[in-house]
Design brief:
Elements: E1 18-23, H1 28-41, E2 46-49, H2 65-72, H3 78-95, E3 101-106, E4 109-111, H4 115-123, E5 131-133, E6 147-154, E7 157-162, E8 171-175, H5 176-185, H6 193-197, H7 200-203, E9 207-211, E10 215-217, H8 219-222, H9 238-270
Parallel strand pairs: 1-2, 1-3, 5-9
Antiparallel strand pairs: 3-8, 4-10, 5-8, 6-7, 7-9
């Protein structure tokens, strides 16, 4: 998407939203694939060279290994550190631009052919958001995050509010407030980026999603071919993992549910 200042009028267009593509320097095949993907839907992007987890050494001043172990129930995965810091780097670059919104994308995604219209319609829906989650998984038939439909925006696509955790950060739209709050409050990693960003109540931002997801993961690049390799080998033994992690997860999901119900009521009143 071409850079340019967003007009003061209510109408916004995707041509005025800056797009970033996160790609590892050694993942040239993914860059080729992603370039073709963006070209098919007419979106231009700025390339963000990802932080390579293989080049990260521990301990790291911006990583709390103990909290990660306790809250996530896994041993350190340097690939997840690289992914986390890559997203923060993109948000820093965005805030140094003059744009009001950024489309942040990973390199294993595929767009619905109507993606530009979907984003335009979401921006002009009359429902405010700071973060808009656009991507799902590699299985298009399964929707993540227990989405509650708020408003039909284009064809069969709806603006939605997730009552549950929505994994993945393959593609999302974010405004300056969202980026600023994430950078301020997530500068020290203690959870993978998708878990950390999906806690609106701590980040003081409003996140919504599109359902069904108009962006999905390419099966040939994601399943079995991930550079992060967040496999079961990183999990602690059963008896350790669940005593450490379950209390946190239960509290987190209960807080999420209460917060999202409150937000749902607020959105309905605003409408």
């Amino acid at each position: 998407m071409d850079a340019g200042s967003i007009p003061a009028a209510s109408t916004m267009y995707t041509s005025e939203v800056i797009a970033y593509l996160i790609n590892l320097e050694r993942a040239h095949d993914r860059l080729v694939s992603a370039t073709e993907t963006f070209k098919k839907v007419g979106i231009k992007f700025e390339l963000e060279v990802a932080v390579d987890g293989k080049r990260i050494s521990l301990p790291h001043q911006n990583y709390s290994e103990l909290k990660y172990n306790l809250l996530h129930g896994k041993k350190t995965n340097l690939g997840e550190l690289g992914c986390y810091f890559s997203h923060l780097n993109v948000l820093k670059k965005f805030l140094n631009s003059n744009e009001d919104y950024a489309l942040v994308c990973e390199d294993d995604i595929e767009f619905d052919e109507n993606i530009k219209k979907i984003i335009d319609s979401a921006l002009n829906s009359g429902i405010n958001f700071d973060l808009l989650r656009l991507s799902g998984g590699s299985d298009k038939t399964k929707e993540k995050g227990l989405p509650i439909k708020l408003k039909k925006i284009h064809k069969n696509f709806y603006l939605a509010l997730n009552l549950g955790f929505k994994s993945g950060t393959g593609c999302y739209l974010i405004n300056r407030l969202g980026a600023k709050n994430i950078l301020q409050r997530l500068d020290i990693m203690s959870l993978p980026i998708d878990h950390a960003m999906d806690r609106d109540w701590l980040l003081n931002l409003r996140s919504l999603s599109i359902t069904p997801a108009p962006v999905y993961l390419k099966e040939d690049l994601h399943l079995g071919n991930s550079y992060i390799q967040a496999k079961s080998e990183y999990k602690f033994a059963f008896y350790k993992r669940y005593w450490l992690m379950v209390p946190f997860r239960l509290a987190n999901e209960l807080t999420r549910l209460v917060y999202k119900i409150f937000l749902l009521v607020k959105i309905k009143l605003e409408s």
